[in-house]
Each structure stands twice: as C-alpha cells, then as structure tokens.
Design goal:
Bound molecules: adenosine-5'-tetraphosphate
Distance between the termini: 34 Å
Strand content: 5-15%
Radius of gyration: 21 Å
Order of helices and strands: EHEHHEHHHHEHEHHHHH
Helix content: 55-70%
Number of strands: 5
Shape: globular
Number of helices: 13
Structural class: mainly alpha
Oligomer: single chain
Largest sheet: 3 strands, parallel
C-alpha cells in the first residue's frame, strides 16, 4: 500500500478551519487507501517559545482534535513526534546534507523570521523544514497531505531524498505532495488576500474549530465579500465570496457550480446565513467529541503510546539503514 505521512503543530487552543480543510480532512480520507502515519509535531512547536505546561496540554488537545475529526487508531498510526527519537536523529543527518543557501530560500522562514525579528528567530525555526524532511523520509512516505503553504518544503524533501539516494545508494522513497487544489489554501474571512492562519489572521477572520458555535456563526456572517452582488466563483475578482463557496462546497459535498446555480438571484446574506448553519452543525459535534477524548486522558495516552511504538518500528529501521549507508560504525 502507498504510505501517507503528515504532522500538525500542537496549536494553543484549537485547530482552525484552514488546518481542517487543507490538511486534516485529507488525513482522514487517506486512512482508507494508505498506510497512514500522523503526528503531533511538538519538536516543531518549540521553534518558537512555549510554556512547558501549555505545550503538554496542547499536545493532548491536538491529539484529541485529530481523533474527533475522524482519525481512527485502528486504521492509522497517531503519535507524538518527540516520542520517536529517530526524528531528531535523522534531522541531524538531513541538516548535514542541506546547503545553507538552499535552506535560506524557504519562504516560510523568511516570512516568519521577518515577523519575529532576526534576533528573536531561532536556528530551530531556520532548520524546521529540514526536520520536516526527516519526518517524511523516516516513514518512506509516498504521499504527504498538506496545505499549499507546505509545497516548497515537500520539494526540499524530494531534493534531499534524491541527493541522499544518489550519493549513498537507494535508501529513501521520494514523496509527492498531496494537496487538494480547491482547499489547499483557505483564506482569512476578513482579509481574503491572506491565508487563514493562527499567527497572521485577524481574530474575526480566523475560524477556530473549538470556538463557541455562536462565535463561529457570527464570524461567518460578518465575512468580507465585495460591492458586487452576484454569488460566483471567481477567486481573482471575488476572493471573499469564492472562499465562502469553497468552504460551503467542501463541507456539504456540493460542487461549486451547483451552489452558484442555487444562489442565482440571491444576496450574499443568504449564502452567509446558510454557511453559518453548516459550520455550526459541523463544529458542534466536533467540540463534543474532542471533549470526550480530553475527559479520558488515559485512553488518549494509550492511543499515543501504541502509535509511538508502531511508528518507532518503522523509523528505527530507516534510521539504521541510513546510518549504515553513511558509514557510521555500528554500536556493539
Ligand atoms: N489556510 C490554510 N489553508 C489550507 N491549509 C492550511 N494549513 C494551515 N493553514 C492553512 C495546513 O494545516 C496543516 C497544519 O499546519 P501546521 O501545524 O504547520 O500549522 P501552521 O502551518 O503553523 O498553521 P498556521 O495557522 O498556518 O500557522 P502559522 O500562523 O504559524 O503559519 C499544514 O498541512 C498546513 O499546510
């Protein structure tokens, strides 16, 4: 079977709609067709300062949300990145294979470090994409379900896999990004020129999945559209309306063209009211399911422990082969 691998940060509070539509939905779908490995990437989280107690709580929170979204531990391997030490170990190897200039070209680092200020950005933030390369290659993943913002990092992964294979012999599977065209980039509801994001979004433009559903409905109803009145998918000229149509289409499993037809002659308010209802119907059970997992930390921890064990078996094999190819003396 093909293999899927992806990771998500233990964000404080809640995943947002962009995370869900761009990535988590695909995690759930690929469980059926792939050997799927999904992890809460706490090593990545510490590239920016974290409060220890909060990080621990947020890691459980993230796992609970992934289960609530539909990950099934019987059909996929769900684990916490720091539980599998091979990530940091292969990360070092990949650091030594990456050119400084090559790493400097990663646009996400440029954006994030510019925001934080050069003196505050850590070396960890700089090498973050290289750890991500290790995350993927350890599992010999064929597909990496992510949002559009991660495309460049998957390209780097492919380059490094090919470089290693070329230099040391066939070792790593060269993975492909798995990005759904329609939902690869979900936009801020208040500023549809920027992606919905936990750090860059306006508070009103960011739909947190665990927000009170009333707040969510309000945010949808006050989404920015345009001065025209036609409900039509046209990302260039009507980015706000197009974003709402994509969200509605995905959550209701209705082609955008059908939505355009059914809203012919109707005002933006009609689309927003309907979408607000769809969102509330989606987040209400999601919140309840997340809470159920959080109320039972023993079960949650045992899911993560089993996941880490399964993940380690695969990761350890890849790392051992990598160390051997590099020429490290085996420990006796
Ligand atoms: N707006 C988005 N549309 C589609 N996909 C998105 N993703 C994030 N935002 C969108 C995808 O969600 C997955 C998990 O992302 P992450 O753990 O790396 O979180 P992130 O990228 O840090 O999320 P944010 O909100 O975008 O964080 P900041 O503000 O730090 O940049 C990834 O697959 C990502 O592509």
């Amino acid at each position: 079977r093909p293999r899927a691998l992806s990771g998500i940060q233990p964000t404080a509070g809640s995943f947002h709609l962009g995370n869900y539509l761009g990535a988590i939905r695909q995690y759930v779908a690929l469980q059926e067709s792939h050997d799927a490995f999904y992890m809460v990437v706490d090593l990545h989280a510490i590239t920016v300062p974290q409060d220890p107690a909060e990080l621990r709580a947020n890691t459980r929170f993230a796992a609970a949300q992934l289960l609530a979204a539909g990950l099934d531990p019987e059909r996929c391997t769900l684990f916490v990145q720091s539980h599998v030490p091979e990530h940091a170990q292969l990360g070092w190897v990949m650091n030594c294979l990456t050119g400084f200039g090559e790493a400097s070209r990663m646009t996400q680092f440029k954006d994030k470090s510019a925001k934080q200020g050069a003196d505050r950005a850590t070396v960890g933030l700089f090498t973050y994409p290289i750890l991500q390369v290790a995350d993927i290659l350890l599992y010999q993943a064929t597909h990496v379900p992510v949002g559009e913002d991660q495309r460049q990092h998957i390209e780097l992964t492919r380059d490094l896999a090919e470089r290693f294979n070329g230099r040391f012999g066939e070792t790593f599977t060269v993975p492909a990004p798995y990005i759904v065209k329609e939902t690869g980039k979900i936009y801020d509801l208040q500023d549809p020129a920027i992606k919905m994001s936990k750090s860059a979004s306006t508070p009103k433009g960011l739909i947190n999945l665990l927000d009170d559903p009333k707040v969510t409905a309000k945010k949808v109803k006050s989404a920015v559209t345009d001065t025209d009145t036609v409900i039509r998918f046209d990302p260039e000229n009507k980015p706000g309306v197009s974003n709402l149509l994509v969200i509605m289409s995905t959550l209701t499993d209705t082609p955008v063209a059908d939505l355009e037809k059914s809203y012919e002659g109707k005002m933006y308010g009609a689309l927003k009211t309907d979408l607000a209802e769809v969102m509330v119907d989606f987040v209400t059970p999601f919140r309840a399911r997340t809470q159920e997992y959080l109320d039972d930390p023993e079960t949650l921890d045992s899911v993560l422990a089993k996941g880490a064990e399964k993940a380690r078996a695969v990761a350890a094999e890849t790392l051992a082969q990598t160390y051997d190819r590099i020429g490290f003396l085996p420990a006796k």
